[in-house]
Each structure stands twice: as C-alpha cells, then as structure tokens.
Amino acid sequence: MAGKPEVRIEEVRAALRRANHLYYVLDSPEISDIEYDDLMRELIAIETEHPELVVDDSPTQRVGAPLDSAFAPVTHLERMFSLDNVESEEELETWQSRLARMLEREPSGYVCEQKIDGLAVSLTYQEGRLVRAATRGDGQVGEDITANVRTIDSVPLRLQAGAPSLMEVRGEIYMPVAVFAALNERQADLGEKPYVNPRNTAAGSVRQKDPAKTAQRSLSIWLYQLGQVSGGPTFASHWESLQWMAELGLRVNPASRRISDLAGVEAYVTETQEGRHANDYEIDGIVVKVDDLGEQDEVGYTAKSPRWAVAYKLPPEEKTTTLEEIRINVGRTGAVTPYAVLDPVFVGGVTVTNATLHNEGELHRKDLRPGDTVIVRRAGDVIPEVVGPVLTKRPKGLAKWHMPAMCPFCGNPIVLTEGQAKARCTGGFACPSRLREYLFHFASRGAMDIEGLGYQTVDMLLSEGVITDPADIFTLDPDVLLGFEGWGEISVNNLLEAISGVKDRPLTRLITALGIDHVGGTVARVLAAEFRSLPALMAADVEAITALSGIGPEIAGSVVAWSEDEDNRQLVERLGEAGVRLLDPEPEPQEEGAATLAGMSFVVTGTLEGYKRNEAKGQLERLGGKVTGSVSGKTAALIAGASPGSKLARAESLGVPVLDEAGFVRLLAEGPAAIS
Ligand code: IVH
Q1: Nearest CA owner, ligand 1 atom 18
Q2: Which of 116, 140, 223, 310 should be mutated for ligand 1, with most atoms under 8 A from CB?
C-alpha cells in the first residue's frame, strides 16, 4: 500500500471503476480476475482502516442493508410512456405514412433497437452519481428500487467525466438467459419449482427487500433512452444521445443501428429475428424510433405513447424437437388429457419438456404421432404449444396414437361420451392419478388452503395407502403417520392441526375444493351466497341454479350432474361426519359501505407483480366487483399486467378502459374514480 491512503484509495477506485466499465459495459476486460480481486481487497483494506474515507459510490458499496418497509413511490421527472405495436411490414408502413402526413415529408431517418424483454427502469444521476432507480409503475409514479439496482454491476454508480448536473436515462433490466438457465438447474437440484421465464424472475429479483438477494441474481441492463437533462449538451438526434450515454459509461446496446429508410428498417427486423438466439437476453421485438429530435417534437405523443416510435412485435418463437411419446394425465375431475413428452427444447425463454395436447380429437386434427419431429411454440407467458408435425421428417410407417381403452393408473375403462371433447376415466377415486390431483386441488391455496399438504405429502400418503378417498385426510391416524420415514411428532402435529383447522372454512372454499367441472372460486361464491349450505345446493335443480346471475346452463348442468353422482354424495356425507362445516352460519361478511365496485365487471390479464391472479380477483370481489374471463362492451375495465396478450387489443378495440398495476391499486383504494 503506497502513499497517503486518501490518494491511494482514489487510485484504486478509479482502477476498479475502469475495470468494471470494461468488463460489464464494454464486454472487453483488460485485467484478469485475480488483478481485479487484488484491487478490491486493497480497497476493502483501506476502507476498513479508514472508515471516514468510505463514500457511497465506492465500488465496495453495491450491496446495502435490507429494506424494512415497502418500496417508496417515486414520481418520474418525465412520464414513462409505453409503445404502440405494429405486427407486419404493412402496419409499419402505415405508421410511416402517418408520420409523413404530419411532417409533410418522410422522416429523415430512424434508429432501430432491440426491444429487450425485461422490466423498464429509470435511472437518475446527479453530478454523475446514481441517486435513484425507479420502476415504471403507471408511467407517472413508480417504485424506488435504488438499493437493488445498485447491486447490478453494469449499472455505473458513477458516470465518466463530462456528466451533467442532472440526467435521467431509461432502460431495461433483464436476467441473462444463461443466468436464468443456471438458476433453474439449481432449483431442479434442490427439488424446487423452476422459474417461469427470465423476465418475471428479473422482476421478482428487483423487488426483493434484501439487496443481497438481488445481487445474487446477476441481473444486467441496457439503456436506450435519454430522459431529462440539465446542464448538459443538446442533441439533434436520438442516435447522438445514445452515443453520449455510452461515452458516459452507460451500457447502450451495440446492436442499435441508425437507418435511413423503411426498407433498411425492414431488413433490420428480418436480421434481428434470424439472429434472435445468438443473444444472451430475450427480445420480444424491435423498437423503431424517428431519429431526428426536431421531427420527434413535431409529431409528439398520443395519450399513451410517442408517435415517433413503435414496437415491431416479433412473432412467437418456434423451434423443432422430437415428440418422444404421448402420455395421458387423469385430472381432478377424471378428465383424461393426452400430453406430449418432448426432447427438451429451449423456446421462448423456457425449457419445454411437456406440452398438453388437450384431447384426442385435437391431436388427430394436427396429425401428431409419437416419433414425429414437431414444431413447438411459446409466446410470452403463454403455455407451450405443439403446433404440428414436420411431415417431411416423418419416418416411414409411424403409427397413429390412440387413447388407451383402460386407464393406465387404475385399470378402469376410459370412456368418451358423444358430444364431449374429453375422455374420462371411470375409476372415480379408485384412480390414484385422479385422487392425487383431486387432493392436491382440495388442499390448494384457492380452495381449502391446507398448509403443508402439497404434492410431496399427498404422494407419500397415497403411496403408503392411508388415503383412498378425499375425506380420509380428516381422519388420519397420528400413530400411523409417525411410522413413516422423516415424520416426527412436530411434523405430524403441524399437518393434523392444519387439516383440522380448515374444517370451518367458508362454504365458498368448500364448494371450490369439491372440484366440480366449471365451478371455480367466482361461481362457488355465487352458489354459496345463494344456497348457504351444501345439502341445499345439492338438492337444487338446473332451473334454480341458472336463475343466479352469471350462471348458465352448462355450469348448472355440471353442478346437478355432480350432485347426483353417488361417489360425490358419499364424499359429502363423509366430510360432514368428519366435522367439515357444510353450511355458512351467517351471511358472508360484507363490510358496510365497502362495495365500491358493485355492479361493475372486470377482466384481469397478464402478470401483476404484486398479486397472484387469484388475489387480484379476490380483491375486486371483496369490493363487490365481478371478474369475468373475457372482455366485452360491458367490462368496466381491463386490469392488464405484463404480457397482457389478446385481451388488451380487444379492450382497446372496444374502448374499454385499461388499468395497469398501479391503476389497479388505485382502483382498490379509490373505487371507480380511478377509472378515467
Ligand atoms: S423506448 C418513449 N426502447 O418496451 C419511448 N423501450 O412498450 C419508450 N423496451 O416500457 C420506450 N426495449 O420497457 C424503448 N430499446 C427500447 C426498448 C424499450 C424494451 C420496453 C420498455 C417500454 C416498453 C414499451
């Protein structure tokens, strides 16, 4: 350690900042990991000895203390807009013609960028130092995620020389595909559920209360848009502003290109689409921006998005793989579903190994045969789909697949009733596959919510033969459980207490748990409110049930058929004997004056960061709102999370108001006033 500490410390910091910039931003390191580690160690040593010299943008200060409260709201300096989509060259040309009309000439040039599939973030630098990072939120107000964003190595805590007094930049935080894959491998090793896709995982990582957890996720960032600047240079074009951002040390995507005409833009789209897999991050489109800032000003903004930019959506990614086998599942209602066992293939950001084939008719319509090379597609959050076979690759003599006559799990006949798409196993609860799915559903969060009764425990109970009917879970013998490997007094007591604790659940939950076809939480709530007891519901006829609002003949028929089934009648009787409450004593509690959303119907789509779909639904229903599955002219608002899919387009075409997550939160707090 040479010289005065206050001099040396700055030398070491400068060397580390340079190394970070070369490694994380420019991807061209000049020093080895060992040299880097030595510098870092030296810095830590000086800072330990001279705590008075620690500053918060020191390279040692990326991981701070855990937050003890929620992420604070942040009002953006400038609104964060979203982008309109185009999906074809034609639509791109329409966009351009509109601009040409407004400008009375064609735009003089464009910048094409990859549309990164991550989460939007705004970074604010004051005097070159990172002072704030915020999520997009509703575009006006986001959440303060500074502590977590500081842990992202490619986000400079301090900019290079020449930074203005204030600047705000926008970009996208993402999880590299390789990091995502490694994370999921670890999940698999631990026997945990895999994460769905890099974007959601990145979003979850950024919303950790503990920055140390975010730091472990190896997130990265691309910056693509300059926001407010004071005390800095002015630019004539977006392209120049990007160059300047890069000079200041911000990570700007080198795949961005300045292009003079639409033909060039179209070539960029094609090229990007073809090279899509070469990137270590996911893209879901191309952003085309008018380059000239004067022209941008001239065309301006709509209420939601700039007119000077569009997102050219790429079609969902498709890959081919081998359909190794077709197997079947028996679900909780006894319905038999064939599914594809695939040679694992990474498509649309996840590794796909299975895909449902829905029913035998569908499978033959696509002419899928075990052994085929098949096209697999996955768009955004959507479940993977087998599109069809590649017939030119079909080996000679490949046999068609047929639904087995007997259930492979219980040996009872599988039957297909005329007019129904799905075949059914006739084994009832004697079918272990059906029983397993039934129990799992019965105990799940949206139904009876029995803590500790997940797949693992259910499987153990089934394989030990202590359960042959769903009601058996209420009469489990602790002495028998204690005999099983890995089960001690505490775990047995916890499980039995959890089970016994749900006997008093409201009727809505019980009805949901019974797994009647077409009866989810919403319908169950209507039925419970009307009939107030399970025996009364089971005595009702189709007419009485269809009289209820929102319930059609299909649901009513399903309820009646379920009630008439002897197995189900016995099940209900045994549940009653076991002490499960079959009726609601009081009207379900409705807070006085709380039904602010009464008479309004909503649709929820896409992924919300703070709510599971069920929770969002529950919140709306708690306030008297109704939640339906499809958007119509009567829908009061569409709640659209990330990757909303076709419902968003439908809402827009019908003029139905759309609320993002922040809007949803306001709706819960303020009622209908939040929809404007
Ligand atoms: S520009 C006013 N450029 O896409 C311009 N956005 O629907 C605003 N995105 O919220 C955005 N890559 O999260 C822009 N190269 C890129 C982008 C990009 C991804 C995201 C961003 C934005 C959304 C627009």
Answers
A1: 115
A2: 116
Reported CATH class of domain 322-394+407-415: mainly beta
342: which 2 tokens?
A: 């695939």
pLDDT at 502: 94
Categorise residue 469: left if φ over 0, alpha if ψ from -120 to 50, beta otherwise.
beta
Distance, in Å, from the CA atom of 200 to the CA atom of 468, rounded to the nearest integer, reads 39
Q: How do residues 388-428 score in pLDDT, each as one tens digit?
A: 999 999 999 999 999 999 999 999 999 998 888 889 999 99
Overall average pLDDT of the 230-234 stretch: 92
The tens digit of pLDDT for each residue in 529-549 reads 899 999 999 999 999 999 888
Q: Give dist(CA 35, CA 43) in Å, integer.
A: 12
Does 348 sit in the ligand 1 pocket, CB within 6 Å?
Answer: no
406 φ/ψ angles, rounded to the nearest 5 degrees? -115, 145
* Closest ligand 1 atom number to CA of residue 136: 10
Pocket flag, ligand 1, residue 492 (CB < 6 Å): no
pLDDT digit string (tens) for 581-621? 999 876 555 555 578 898 899 999 988 887 888 888 888 98
**Residues contacting 98, CB < 8 A, separation 6+:** 307
Verify whether ligand 1 is closer than 6 Å to residue 311 (CB atom). Answer: yes
One CATH from 1.20.1530.20, 3.40.630.30, 1.10.150.20, 3.40.50.150 for 430-577: 1.10.150.20
Pick the CATH number of 5-61 from 3.30.70.360, 1.10.287.610, 2.30.30.60, 3.90.1200.10: 1.10.287.610
**Residue 597 backbone class (left: φ over 0; alpha: ψ -120 to 50; beta: rest):** alpha
User: Which residue, by CA, sits nearest to atom 2 of ligand 1?
Assistant: 81
pLDDT digits (tens, 9 = 90+) for 267-276: 999 999 888 8
The answer to whether the beta carbons of residues 590 and 525 sit under 8 Å apart is no
pLDDT digits (tens, 9 = 90+) for 71-100: 999 999 899 999 999 999 999 999 999 999
Please work out whether the CB of residue 172 comes within 6 Å of at least one atom of ligand 1. yes
- Ligand 1 centroid to 252 CA: how many Å? 13
Span from the CA of 313 to the centroid of ligand 1 (angstroms): 12
Ligand 1 nearest atom to the CA of residue 115, by list position: 12
Task: Identify the H or E element spanning 176.
Answer: none
Instruction: Provide the whole-model pTM.
Output: 0.59
Report how far ligand 1's centroid is from the alpha carbon of 105 (Å): 26
Residue 346 CB less than 6 A away from ligand 1: no
Q: What is the mean pLDDT of the chain?
A: 91
Q: How many CA atoms lie within 13 A of 13 on its CB side?
A: 22
Does domain 601-674 sit in CATH 3.40.50.10190?
Answer: yes
Q: How far apart are CA 13 and CA 57, in angstroms?
A: 10
How far is ligand 1, taken at its centre, from the CA of residue 493, in Å? Answer: 52
* Pocket residue to mutate for ligand 1, from 170, 242, 314, most atoms within 8 A of Cβ: 170
In the chain, the amino acid numbered 268 is: Y
Ligand 1 atom at minimal distance to the Cα of residue 256: 15
Calculate how far, in angstroms, residue 82's C-alpha sits from the geometric centre of ligand 1.
Answer: 7
CA–centroid distance for 250 within its chain: 28
- Residue 289 bears catalytic tag: no
